[in-house]
Amino acid sequence: MKHLLAIRDLTPEEFNAILDLSEGATGRPLQDKGVALYFEKPSARTRNSMEMAVAQLGGHPVYLQPSELGIGTRESVEDVTRTLACYHAVIAARVFDHGLLEQMAAIGVTPVLNMLSATDHPLQALADMLTIKQLLGRLEGVTIAFIGEANNVSRSLAEACALTGATLSIASPIGFGFATPMQAVYQTHDPAEAVDGADIIYSDVWVSMGDEDSAERRELFAPFAVDDALMARAPSAHFLHCLPAVRGEEVTAGVIDGPRSAVWRQAENRMHTARGALQWLLGQTA
Known about the structure:
The chain has helices at 12-23, 44-56, 66-69, 77-85, 98-107, 122-136, 152-164, 191-195, 215-221, 228-231, 253-256, 263-281; strands spanning 34-39, 60-64, 88-94, 112-116, 143-147, 167-171, 185-188, 200-203, 238-241. It is an alpha/beta fold and 286 residues long. A 5-stranded parallel β-sheet has the order 7-6-5-8-9.
């Protein structure tokens, strides 16, 4: 039984197979089947992309909130997982604690798909790499500059780079980089150094969901805004952002809405790679 909890769980061949499935014929492997979509954290792109991906594969998505399941309070993780497996071909979950996904997968009753956890965002990394492949025609040898915190998005992106032969330069304030070295990743505190010669410049919000009042954090990240001057250091680079974006903070409106931005293709690819991931979990080949 396959699960997709983190990019590091995949081989290069499996990663590329999911990208191929994302752009290939779909079929109806979920015909008359359900997919449980459990959301501890809300998301416009994740919910819409996943529901549409399930529908495109012939299935029926069922949106679930914590109050409906009571995982760890009203029922155990095992009982909830086994119950959902009675009705659904796949359990997809967007959670705070990555360990919850690992517990679900360990029960081994149905494939588990990570829609986001505190440590990993594999579906975003798949969409990112598919977008880059479409823009540049390749992944091997591509240089990506990530400007911002070393978070779940950049971690999964770094792991995808290691699988595909791309490299990631990440520029973060002191104390906001990866605590330990990662393969295919160069870390710096200088955004200009990170973007020099980059093929892709990538940004993310400075303040995550639930921390919106952190004025101190915004002040610390202010030198890491992606603006026209920073983009000029990589004249042929495309701009990506996982969204939602705060124009005037991590990126200017001129960059994210400008001709070098590919954020809407990237957002659309969330649906295509969700579909590819589901097909791969169900054993389909490209």
